Amino acid sequence: MKMKTISTAVAMLIVGAGAAVAQATVVVAPEQQTVVREYVTKHRVSPVTLPGSVTLAVGATLPEDVELHSFEGVEGVGEYRYVVVGNQTVLVQPGTRKVVQIID
């Protein structure tokens, strides 16, 4: 009985960790990435340089002074905001300012 309880607890930890990773990653379909790229190209914004304390990665939190831009009329990504860092488009969850996807 004790071994079954331990096995169940380990399984729950593994499933929980997988769910946390899944929540941190947004998969925008390749077709939608093309729409995002076209939108960003048409609606040019100045690229930003992140402070040295911020590493650009999914799950990173962007500082409050980084201006986020909205997708006007773009279906499927309207709940996210974006910023351009170098030549990468970075999708951000506006409420948390967490990076959810980086599109090259």
List keywords for this structure.
disordered N terminus; 2 helices; 104 residues; 4 strands; alpha+beta; 4-stranded antiparallel beta sheet; single chain
Explained architecture:
There is one protein chain. The protein is an alpha+beta fold and 104 residues long. Helices cover 35% and strands 18% of the residues. It has two helices and four strands; from the N terminus they run ααββββ. Strands 1-2-3-4 form a four-stranded antiparallel sheet, with helices on one face. A hairpin with a 4-residue loop joins strand 3 (88-93) and strand 4 (98-103). The protein is globular.
- Along the chain, the helix and strand elements come as HHEEEE
| Percent in helix | 25-40%
Largest sheet data: 4 strands, antiparallel
Task: Specify the oligomeric state.
Answer: single chain
Beta-strand content estimate: 15-25%
Spatial arrangement of strands, main beta sheet: 1-2-3-4
Calculate the mean pLDDT score and round it: 81
Which structural class fits the helix and strand makeup? alpha+beta
The tally of strands reads: 4
**Morphology:** globular
- Distance separating the two termini: 51 Å
- The low-pLDDT segments are 3-24
What is the radius of gyration? 18 Å
Figure out the total of helices.
2
